[in-house]
């Protein structure tokens, strides 16, 4: 299986042929201008929350792919209001686990606000843990460092996708602590460098993780990592 990074917090998993897209924000991201969203056709779309830099391309990509969209209850209601057919929307909540053809997905805690691009309340933000084959992958979404992350330590996670840009989410130092909390040595950074407030020095960030005995992966936009 592999993952493709499309910038900001948008990644697409290829779980042995089943494609799962998270937080699609591509066409409005100038750093991702080389990505043709018309070529992205996932089977599933997961949304950590409904801020514009996580859902901007949801409706377009869902329509062209007929993907099933999964999100916390209130965000899922907004998804339906965007014209996504009801039978293509899965709403669930914290503690809930979806049993899907490619594996299982559990919704876990995240500490962040949540509203739709036009302003209304959209529930709260969330993270996900994917259980696919023998792999366990944590996608934190937008979050601050929280003690609840320690609840994931006994899962023996293979990979963790953690925000590292600071200002709106964890910064590099807090992400390193989060990696300790969840007991995961392989981290893929998300939510950085898209806007000035979340700019980081990638080399320094990688060195910070390396000094702590962990690996921080920062793929180029459009780049792939084998999981």
Keywords:
single chain, alpha/beta, seven-stranded mixed β-sheet, 5 helices, 14 strands, 29% strand, globular
What's the quick description here?
The protein has helices spanning 52-55, 58-65, 73-81, 172-182, 202-211, and strands spanning 2-5, 11-15, 18-22, 44-46, 68-72, 89-92, 97-100, 103-109, 126-132, 135-139, 159-163, 186-190, 215-217, 224-226. The chain is an alpha/beta fold.
The number of distinct β-strands equals 14
Percent strand equals 25-35%
Binned, the helix content reads: 10-25%
Instruction: Describe the global form.
Output: globular
Secondary-structure content class? alpha/beta
User: What is the N-to-C order of secondary-structure elements (H for helix, E for strand)?
Assistant: EEEEHHEHEEEEEEHEHEE
In which order are the strands of the major sheet placed? 6-5-4-3-2-1-14
Tell me about the biggest sheet? 7 strands, mixed
Low-pLDDT stretches = none
Number of helices: 5
Rounded Rg: 16 Å
| Average pLDDT for all residues | 98
